[in-house]
Amino acid sequence: MRHFLSVADLSQQEFRAIIARGSEFRRQFEAGELQSPFPAKTLAMIFEKSSTRTRVSFEAGMAQLGGHALYLSPNDTQLGRGEPMEDTARVLSQMVDLIMLRTYSHEGLQRFCEAATVPVINGLTDLYHPCQLLADMQTYFDYRGDIKGKTVAWIGDGNNVCNSFINTAKLLEFNLRIACPAGYSPDEAVLKNAENAATVMTSPDEAMDGADLVVTDVWSSMGQESETNKRTVAFADYRVTKERMALAAKDALFMHCLPAHRGEEVDADVIDGDQSVVWDEAGNRLHAQKALMEFLLLQKS
Ligand code: CP
Ligand code: NVA
């Protein structure tokens, strides 16, 4: 049995196979060739934070595989009344085939995972968002081919999505340049583990110089709402503008995991412009995660 808590849980070969399968699922979906290989399989999805894309992609994806997904929130389960996460993991494992958890603490997710006896998927923690990277890489490969040896510029907060980009840079062997203000660097241990794959700098212009892919994310992630004013000041010079996009390679792509704030981390003429692939990136959450669920269900059986 395998879990997916981090990009580093997969080998390079497994990661590549999952995104290739995701592309195949996309082609089948667009051609109306739906197959439902997993009837009666059930996914429990626990969301302790908000979600649009993650919730809909997992729920629709499980329906398309022939199974069923349950949305569980602390507000209307016993979790909100203090039932321990570990007990919830044990109980759900008796009833479902897969569990997805979106929560705050990554250690909390790891404890949940230790108590579970079915595969657990990280639907985002404060440390990582690995499902996002499956979709992002599937999108890059579909548009431009292999990312090995390419340069990716991350502009803004060294947050959960950035940490997962760092893991992916190491796994798929691309160069990641991270531009963030002092005090907002990515997780030190994650960075150290990536060795030479990721470099942190303060200048967004330097990071974007000749980059093949430019990525940004919100300045305040979920759970950081009280820091919004302070962060708005700290990140004021970290917006992805059209002028900055001109520093990247001519055929550079722009990605954002969404939700986005136009006029903050990215200007409207970039996210809504020709180089942006954010809608395919969001759509590929469905296909990449179907491939992930298939991988985990097949490993389990
Ligand atoms: N990108 C992403 O995970 O979006 P949601 O928060 O809407 O799930
Ligand atoms: N970094 C953002 C990603 C949202 C999908 C957050 O954690 O809120």
Distance between the termini: 8 Å
The number of domains: 2
Topology order in helix (H) and strand (E) letters: HEHEHEHEHEHEHEHEHHEHH
Number of strands: 9
Largest sheet: 5 strands, parallel
What share of residues are in beta strands? Answer: 5-15%
| Top CATH class of the largest domain | Alpha Beta
Query: Which class best fits the helix and strand makeup?
Result: alpha/beta
Low-confidence stretches: none
Q: Any idea what the shape is?
A: globular
Q: List the strand order in the largest sheet.
A: 7-6-5-8-9
Give the second-level CATH assignment, the architecture of the largest domain: 3-Layer(aba) Sandwich
Number of distinct helices:
12
Helix content bin:
40-55%
Cofactors and ligands? phosphoric acid mono(formamide)ester, norvaline
In CATH terms, what is the fold-level topology of the largest domain? Answer: Rossmann fold
Mean pLDDT: 97
CATH homologous superfamily classification of the largest domain: Aspartate/ornithine carbamoyltransferase
What is the radius of gyration computed over CA atoms, rounded to a whole number of angstroms? 19 Å
